[in-house]
């Protein structure tokens, strides 16, 4: 607790309690003199970034997010001690405009749609500073963004984006122009992006710092490569900068009078006919290439009925009253994940499997539970229970054990004997009357297994 208080003091303005060393004092004195000579500027400033409360909020967020170490190997847990010792010098560098971000560490994570997504992991110190910058910029910019932009914005969510899309479809816009930007985060033009930032930020130190984060370079296989384009995914500032870039697209779509929804780089435009959609797609493709130097992925973009496209994991039923349903791709990913968590040879008890599985199910239900096709959720619950029954059958192994377990669970002698001696495999028998009697819904509820359906039948 004492160390935490000391860290908070060191995020201040240089109080005597901090006992700075001579070099830090001299550096800070130069920064203070420079700041006094600099005329006040409207809008976000470096002083706002390093303000005590802003930094405390940023430190709490970085600590909460945890995450891997960057190129310097420093962990989130080691950051407070580092700040305690070095914050005054870092603060002086930020005020002087001489702070230099370190390269990001390149890692690759699996994409939900398949393949790998490159991430750039900044050092924890750079993450702290990025978070502090992001908080100041977001407070200033967010209110100016389009009302139809929902990604990475406070008080907005993917659910709201899906519901907005549903209102457009219900209003008769029965075709969607589904735009996929080709490697958007890797292709952002730095000069265009910094031009947009400069329209909103006049503090040259802040502009230089943001440019420094963009140009920090990438460490991969022991070599640092320069970054001449793109905003590496993995840093706190990247989502806000992507929203600033794509706000240009939002304004153009509004100017043309389109009904659209955008969540990060996922943009869907809703029109009344296929012909109109093809015209819109061609026009927006030209605009993106000319104005933002971004390319549309023609293989993944399309004009189609909303029922055959997915948006943020959902699609929609046809008819005059479209309903939200889980996209087939999302269902396939769900089943693949559950299969991995419920392997029959995992060597864990049914209670352990149910506990681990429930953590995933609760999170999944929190997102996909807003679907309006409850029968799908009930079917998934039935499928989950069948998988667990198959695991139990596999674990009972021998015929005499299986017979004894079925009898212990209340199955009649004849049915237990018939099932225990069956030549059929675990998956088929998991749906048999005997195992359904032995392990009913109440059994799994007592086991603590979460349900993906809103309400479980008795």
TrEMBL record:
Ranges annotated as biased composition (Low complexity): 20-42
Catalytic activity reported: DNA(n) + a 2'-deoxyribonucleoside 5'-triphosphate = DNA(n+1) + diphosphate
Residue ranges occupied by any Reverse transcriptase domain in the UniProt entry: 90-316
Residue intervals passing through the bilayer: none
Positions of region (Disordered): 1-45
SUPFAM superfamilies hit by this protein: DNA/RNA polymerases
Domain of life from the UniProt record: Bacteria
Gene Ontology BP annotations: defense response to virus
Sample GO molecular function, one term: metal ion binding
Magnesium found in the keyword field: yes
Protein EC: 2.7.7.49
Keywords assigned by UniProt, alphabetized: Antiviral defense, Magnesium, Metal-binding, Nucleotidyltransferase, RNA-directed DNA polymerase, Transferase
Pfam families per the UniProt record, alphabetical: GIIM (PF08388), RVT_1 (PF00078)
Family note: Belongs to the bacterial reverse transcriptase family.
Protein name, entry field: RNA-directed DNA polymerase
Organism in which the protein naturally occurs: Bradyrhizobium brasilense
């Amino acid at each position: 607790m004492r160390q935490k208080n000391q860290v908070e003091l060191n995020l201040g303005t240089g109080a005597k309690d901090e006992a700075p060393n001579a070099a830090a004092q001299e550096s800070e004195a130069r920064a203070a003199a420079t700041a006094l000579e600099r005329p006040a500027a409207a809008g976000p400033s470096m002083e706002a970034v390093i303000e005590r409360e802003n930094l405390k909020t940023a430190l709490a967020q970085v600590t909460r997010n945890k995450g891997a170490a960057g190129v310097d190997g420093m962990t989130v847990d080691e950051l407070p001690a580092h700040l305690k010792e070095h914050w005054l010098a870092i603060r002086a560098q930020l005020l002087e405009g001489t702070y230099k971000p370190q390269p990001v560490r390149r890692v690759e994570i699996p994409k939900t749609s398949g393949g790998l997504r490159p991430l750039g992991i900044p050092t924890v110190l750079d993450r702290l500073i990025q978070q502090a910058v992001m908080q100041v910029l977001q407070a200033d910019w967010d209110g100016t963004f389009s009302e139809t932009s929902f990604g990475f914005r406070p008080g907005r969510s993917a659910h709201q984006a899906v519901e907005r899309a549903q209102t457009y479809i219900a209003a008769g816009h029965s075709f969607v122009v589904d735009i996929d930007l080709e490697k958007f985060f890797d292709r952002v033009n730095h000069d265009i992006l910094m031009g947009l930032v400069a329209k909103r930020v006049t503090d040259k130190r802040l502009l230089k710092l943001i440019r420094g984060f963009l140009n920090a370079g990438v460490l991969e296989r022991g070599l640092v490569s320069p970054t001449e384009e793109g905003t590496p995914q993995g840093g706190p500032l990247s989502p806000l900068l992507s929203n600033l870039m794509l706000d240009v697209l939002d304004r153009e779509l509004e100017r043309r009078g389109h009904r659209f929804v955008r969540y990060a780089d996922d943009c869907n435009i809703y029109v009344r006919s296929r012909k109109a959609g093809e015209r819109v797609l061609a026009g927006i493709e030209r605009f993106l290439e000319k104005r933002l130097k971004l390319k549309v992925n023609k293989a993944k973009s399309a004009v189609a009925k909303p029922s055959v496209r997915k948006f943020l994991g959902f699609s929609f039923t046809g008819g005059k009253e479209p309903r939200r349903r889980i996209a087939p791709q999302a269902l396939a990913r769900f089943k693949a994940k559950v299969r991995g968590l419920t392997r029959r040879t995992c060597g864990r008890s049914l209670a352990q499997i149910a506990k681990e599985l429930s953590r995933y199910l609760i999170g999944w239900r929190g997102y996909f539970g807003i679907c309006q096709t409850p029968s799908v959720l009930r079917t998934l619950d039935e499928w989950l229970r069948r998988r667990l029954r198959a695991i139990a059958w596999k674990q009972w192994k021998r015929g005499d054990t299986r017979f004894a377990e079925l009898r212990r669970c209340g199955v009649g002698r004849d049915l237990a004997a018939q099932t225990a001696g069956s030549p059929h495999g675990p998956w088929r028998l998991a749906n048999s009357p005997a195992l359904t009697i032995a392990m009913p819904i109440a059994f799994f509820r007592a086991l603590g297994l979460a349900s993906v359906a809103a309400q479980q039948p008795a």
